[in-house]
Amino acid sequence: MITNVKYSLFGIVLLILFWQLLVMIGTAINDNYVYTQITPVNSIEALWNLLFEVKFYEHVFASLYRIIYALLLALLIGIPIGLIYSSNEKLRKIFYLPFQILRMISPLSWMPIAVLVYDSWDGAIIFLIVMAAVWPIIFNLSQGMAKIDIGWIYVAKSFKANLFNQLRYAIFPSIAQDLITGLRLALGVSWVIIVPAEYLGVTSGLGYAINDARDTLNYSKLAALILAIGLIGFAIDSFLQKLSNRYKWN
User: Fold this and answer.
1) How does it sit in the membrane (predicted)?
2) How far apart are CA 111 and CA 128, in angstroms?
3) In a domain, 48, yes or no
4) Is 1 inside any structural domain?
5) Nearby residues of 113 by Cβ (< 8 Å), 6 or more positions away
6) Number of separate domains in the chain
7) pTM for this predicted structure
8) Tens of pLDDT, residues 138-179
9) Torsion angles phi and psi, residue 53, rounded to 5
10) Are 181 and 140 in contact (CB under 8 A)?
C-alpha cells in the first residue's frame, strides 16, 4: 500500500516536471504571456481558488447531472439490447456489422441532428453522451454473457426459476464485473464528450466554464478547470474500479 502511494506520488512529480518543461519550451519558442499563466504553480493555485467558488460546484453538478442521466439511459438501453444480442447466435451475426458501424461513428458527429431533434440544449447533450456510452455497455455485456456456464442456467431451470430469477441469481451475478467494466468505459468516453458537448449553448457545466475562461483570457483558470475534470473523472473511475473488484469471479 505504502509502496503504491510512493509510486503514485513519484508519477505526479514527473508529470508536473514534464508540464513545467513543456511551458519552458513553449516560452522559448514563442514568448507569449499565456505560458506564464498555465505553469503548474499558477494552475494549482487557480484550482485551489476554484474550490472556494460556489459557481465552480454549480458547473460540476451540472456536468455530473448530464453524465449520470445519460449513463442511466445508456444502461436502460444497453442492458436489454446486450442480453438479446448475446442470447442468439443468429442475432449476433445479423447485428454485428450494423452495431460496429454505429459504434465507430464519432458521437460529436451526431451534434447537428441532436440540435434539430431536441428542443433543449440539455436534451441534445444527453443524446450525444448516450450515443457514446451505450456501445461499451452492449459489447461488454455480450462478452460477459459469452463466459456464463450454461450449466448454471440449467440448474436454475431445474429449480423452476422464472426468467426474472434466472437473471437475478444466475446471469447478473455472473456478468456484474463485465457490466461495471462497460460502465467504466462508458464513463470515460462520456467524460471526454461532455466538454465539447457543453459548448452547445448551455450556460452551466465544466465545458461551458472552460469556454468562458478562454473567452475572458483567464488561462490559469482554464488550466485549473482541466485539472479538475481529470481529478473528478479519476475519482469516479476509481469508485467503479473498486466496485468491479468486488464482483471479481475466480
Assistant:
1) Multi-pass membrane protein
2) 7
3) no
4) no
5) none
6) 1
7) 0.83
8) 988 888 777 776 666 666 666 666 666 766 666 777 777 788
9) -105, 125
10) yes
**Burial environment of residue 55 by CB neighbours within 10 A (0 to 12, 13 to 18, 19 or more):** exposed
Q: What is the DSSP letter of 52?
A: T
Q: How confident is the model at residue 241 (pLDDT cuts 50, 70, 90)?
A: confident
Amino acid at 144: G
Closest CA to 42 of 15, 60, 23, 14: 23
CB 225 within 8 A of CB 213: yes
According to the 3-state scheme, what is the secondary structure of 53-118?
A: CHHHHHHHHHHHHHHHHHHHHHHHHHHHHHHHHHHCHHHHHHHHHHHHHHHHCCHHHHHHHHHHHC
Which three cell numbers, joined as nine digits, stand for 114?
441532436
Burial class (CB in 10 A: 0-12, 13-18, 19+), 165: middle
